[in-house]
Each structure stands twice: as structure tokens, then as C-alpha cells.
Design the sequence.
């Protein structure tokens, strides 16, 4: 008898656990897709009326009156909505259920955040676009690699630039006054038209609203309009223990190169001071540089880069390099945290999806 009672109790606990897990999954699934189901319900009713369910008819006993369909419930003939009013109210019910499900997921997410789990790191960072865009032949001018709209601390940045090597050439990459103090790559290729600057800083990272990461100095070679753009291989990693890429916008800018000098003597003096030995080739004891001087990006020659050049960027190499810069702050290795990690992942999918949508 004791064995039978124990077996019944075990079956009850297992059944209860299965129901709880299934309900939890269903809740999160509906929090993700419920809005689309609610909005699509009237279309289902219009095109597939008899395959659509009126929830009032389905949940009440046969013979009762449905105030929405304005008919007596007869489940043998179907429980589909009879009128547009019924379809509208059923759609509204689905919408309310979606809001309720999302509210529960959001509340669960807040509890996890309070417990020290960051569910969603939003993509907000972008590169600033320079205002001045007209220069003369042989003029050397800077492109400031500046980050803006930083909402969470960042610890690793990689910037990949593409330009027309027939119209521009890189003379120097400066890291003076950068918020980063460790650089793993500082390279340019004037034959392929590519620049890469990668580095960062240890924990707790950089938490300013914006900051200067580096400066690329270009020399104008030929008249015309030339475009300089950030490549999709650029990234800004958050100091969240996961290396979340928070880069939202890449951006590009166009420069007009003219024959005539457009600067007065005061401007030339300022440019000479900017390009003096205190800036170009500066030695800063607070920075650590792990790159080597070479004429190719990641060891790829201009011939390897080809017309596209995107294949010359080796992502595996940079991820190995930036791992020396990023410091993990995650402490979620305990066995008890595995469950919370699963909860975190589901909540991140739901909340992150709707955060991106709205």
C-alpha cells in the first residue's frame, strides 16, 4: 500500500511538472506570436469561416445562447463565429491574452534582471559622420572614428573601413586620446583600400555616451567624389559577459576632392600642428599595442582582396585577438543557474524581438 501511494504521488508530481513546463513554453510562445495570431484571426474567419473557432461557443455547453454569434450553440454543426462581431471580439480576446502573456514574460524578465541576469543588450551604437567633406589634392585630413549613443559599457571595438585607393591613401592611423588602451590590430592597405583598427579596454569597459576610438589620416590623390564606408565586419562589443554586438548603424561619408586649395594660412598651420610628431607615430605608455606594421589587412595582399576585398577580412583571427581584450564578467556556472540561464534565453528572445520591432 505504501508503495502504491508513493507511486501515485510520483506520477502526480511528474504530471504536474510536465503541465507546468508545457504551460510555461506555451506562454512564452504566445508572447512571441500572439499579436500576429490576434491580427490574423479576422482574415482566417473571412476566408476559412468554418475552420475558425468561436471561443464562447467552444467553452459553453450545447444548447446555450451565444451573444456574439446570436445563435444557439450546436457543437455538432460547428463552433465557428457566425457574425463579424463575433470574429472581432474573439480577435480582441486573443489580443488581450497576448498582452497578458507578454506582461508575465516581462515581469519574469525583470525578476531575472534583479537577480543579476541581463536579458537584452540593445543595439544603439553608431559611428559619427564627419561634417566637413571637401578637400584639395595632396591635402591630409582626418577621419575621426567616434562612437555615439553608447547606452551600456563597451570593451571591444573593431572598425573596418573601405575606400577608393585611386582617390585616397592612408598616411597614418592614430590612437591618441582614444578611450581604448589596448590595440590588437592597427593596419591599412593602400592597394586594396582597406583599414582596420581593433582594440578595447578591460573591465568595466567604457561607459561614456560617446567617445573617440581612433583617427585615420587620409591624403587626397585625385579630384572627384570618393566614398568612405564602414564595413559590416565592424563591431562594438558590450561588456556584458557575452560579447553582445551593440553596433546598430555602420554609416558612410563622401568627400569632394578639388584642385584648388580651400584652406587659408591659419588652417594650414593648424593642419601641420595636427600632423606633427606629437600625433603621428606617438608613443603612449598608457596604451598597449599588439599589432605589427604591415601593408596588408590581416596579412591579405591587394591581390588576395580582389575587387570586393571582403574575403580578406578573417573573422576567426580577430575573434581570437579580441578575446585577449574582452573580460568575462559572467558568474553563471553553478548548476543552480542553468535553469535561470534557460529562462533568460527564452525571455531574451521574446523581449528582444519586440524591442527590435518597436
Sequence:
Amino acid at each position: 500500500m505504501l508503495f502504491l501511494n508513493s507511486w501515485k504521488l510520483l506520477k502526480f508530481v511528474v504530471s504536474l511538472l510536465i503541465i507546468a513546463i508545457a504551460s510555461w513554453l506555451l506562454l512564452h510562445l504566445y508572447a512571441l506570436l500572439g499579436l500576429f495570431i490576434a491580427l490574423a484571426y479576422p482574415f482566417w474567419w473571412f476566408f476559412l469561416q468554418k475552420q475558425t473557432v468561436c471561443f464562447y461557443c467552444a467553452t459553453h455547453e450545447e444548447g446555450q445562447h451565444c451573444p456574439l454569434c446570436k445563435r444557439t450553440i450546436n457543437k455538432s454543426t460547428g463552433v465557428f463565429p457566425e457574425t463579424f462581431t463575433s470574429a472581432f471580439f474573439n480577435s480582441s480576446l486573443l489580443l488581450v491574452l497576448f498582452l497578458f502573456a507578454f506582461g508575465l514574460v516581462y515581469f519574469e524578465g525583470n525578476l531575472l534582471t534583479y537577480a543579476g541576469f541581463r536579458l537584452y543588450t540593445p543595439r544603439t551604437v553608431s559611428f559619427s559622420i564627419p561634417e566637413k567633406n571637401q578637400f584639395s589634392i595632396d591635402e591630409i585630413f582626418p577621419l575621426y572614428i567616434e562612437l555615439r549613443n553608447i547606452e551600456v559599457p563597451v570593451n571591444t571595438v573593431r572598425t573596418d573601413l573601405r575606400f577608393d585607393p585611386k582617390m585616397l591613401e592612408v598616411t597614418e592611423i592614430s590612437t591618441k586620446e582614444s578611450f581604448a588602451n589596448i590595440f590588437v590590430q592597427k593596419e591599412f592597405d593602400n592597394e586594396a583600400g582597406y583599414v582596420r583598427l581593433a582594440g578595447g579596454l578591460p573591465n568595466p569597459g567604457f561607459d561614456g555616451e560617446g567617445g573617440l576610438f581612433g583617427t585615420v589620416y587620409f591624403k587626397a590623390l585625385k579630384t572627384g567624389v570618393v566614398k568612405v564606408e564602414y564595413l559590416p565586419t565592424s563591431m562594438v562589443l558590450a561588456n556584458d559577459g557575452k560579447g553582445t554586438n551593440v553596433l546598430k548603424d555602420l554609416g558612410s561619408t563622401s568627400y569632394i576632392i578639388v584642385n584648388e586649395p580651400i584652406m587659408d594660412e591659419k588652417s594650414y598651420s593648424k593642419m601641420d600642428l595636427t600632423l606633427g610628431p606629437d600625433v603621428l607615430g606617438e608613443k603612449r605608455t598608457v596604451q598597449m599595442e599588439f599589432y605589427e606594421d604591415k601593408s596588408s589587412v590581416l596579412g591579405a595582399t591587394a591581390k588576395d582582396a580582389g575587387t570586393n576585398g571582403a574575403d580578406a577580412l578573417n573573422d576567426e583571427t580577430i575573434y581570437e585577438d579580441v578575446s585577449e581584450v574582452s573580460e568575462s564578467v559572467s558568474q553563471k556556472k553553478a548548476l543552480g543557474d542553468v535553469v535561470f540561464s534557460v529562462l533568460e534565453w527564452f525571455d531574451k528572445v521574446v523581449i528582444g524581438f519586440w524591442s527590435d520591432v518597436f
Notes: Helices lie at 2-47, 55-59, 84-114, 265-274, 302-305, 315-322, 337-357. The longest strand covers residues 211-220.
